[in-house]
Specification:
Elements: E1 3-11, H1 16-23, H2 26-32, E2 42-45, E3 51-57, H3 60-66, H4 70-82, E4 83-86, E5 102-103
Antiparallel strand pairs: 1-3, 1-4, 2-3, 2-5
Length: 108
């Protein structure tokens, strides 16, 4: 059974565009190696520039497999150069009853 996750990426200073470029292939890469489902991800941007991505892993085992897959590890290394991973609780919009974000089109 799939596992829907919310991932938040806060760009490092002056790295917002670099992060946006990396995000263009994020889910497609995970899908190409069978780790995520065909569910269309939703990507949003918070007021502070943090990107919020909602997508579906294929299973709990797929999540675990990602942590040892060389393609995923390389991708995450590139992400680590341009952003910090943060919990959704650190995105100010998350404290609102109805959280609003700007839509971001990064999913091909």
């Amino acid at each position: 059974m799939g596992r829907v996750v919310i991932s938040c990426y806060r760009p490092k200073p002056a790295q917002g565009e670099a992060l946006r470029k990396l995000m263009l292939g994020h889910v497609a890469t995970l899908r190409s190696i069978g780790l995520v489902t065909e569910r269309v991800p939703i990507t949003m941007e918070a007021k502070d520039g943090t990107f919020v991505e909602v997508f579906e892993w294929a299973s709990r085992e797929a999540i675990e497999a990602a942590h040892t897959h060389p393609v995923v590890l390389r991708m995450w290394e590139e992400y680590g150069k341009v952003c910090d991973y943060i919990p959704i609780s650190q995105v100010s919009e998350a404290s609102q009853l109805f959280s609003e974000f700007m839509p971001v089109d990064v999913n091909a």
